[in-house]
Amino acid sequence: MARVSALHGAVHVVQMTSGDAFSKGVIADHRAVVPTADDYRRYGAERERETMAAMHALGVRRASVTFLGFPDDGLCVLASKRDVRAEFESPYTKRRSPPVGEQVIRGVTYLGDDVRRELERVIARFAPTLVIVPAARDEHPDHCATHMFVRSALDAVVHAGMPRPPVLHYLIHFGPWPTTLAADAPLDPPPTFPIGDGVWRPIALTPAELARKREALAAYKTQALVIADFVAAFSRRGELFLDGEPEPTPACWCGGENIATK
Fold first, then answer.
1. What share of the chain is helix, strand, coil (3-state, %, to 5)?
2. Which pTM was predicted?
3. Is CATH 3.90.930 the right assignment for the domain spanning 2-261?
4. Tens of pLDDT along 209-225?
5. CA dist., res. 198 & res. 191, Å (int)
């Protein structure tokens, strides 16, 4: 993002959820032993402000960031019920729909079909020449669910006539990686990552890009309260992307159910 922005290219960031269901983070940030729905909502708003501080460090403007406001720790539930017309209620924020100010399509609610429709709208408007999305094998349920939703939305807009853009994947959650890497080591792939999912594309960063990356990571102060070592483990001199779509689709576990089979 920093490199494209510096070259005056166009970047558009889509944040699926606001991370408002991270109970440990809410408790640490708000010092609430039993967080309320208001605590979770305030925490989500704070994490959005941190996102914007991080994007500013990377040269991305507010107009180039879309917050969709779908339920944290609930996105995989929506992916498992894409065709069910029963709205999901977040057990954390007690919301059944994204905040009005974050609705790309007015009137959307916490339904899988609405997630897909909004992603289609955003993708079609921006017409990207490259899409970067969580890897299908990311072990966070909302991350692999995001992969499923984006893949479905891309198929729809390509079917409607948009040229299919290349897709790269990034990995965040996969066992204890990357905290197991030596402090001065590059961001190498997890040694137990399955062979055959694609080709790893490492990208070296310039000193200026590394400085901006570290400034962006430092913006996530609420995360540092709980998972500082995990966040710091990504503060390395490179980025790592997976080029390729694994077949068959890896499992995406949501409440003990593999939603990737649906």
1. 40, 15, 45
2. 0.95
3. no
4. 999 999 999 999 999 99
5. 14
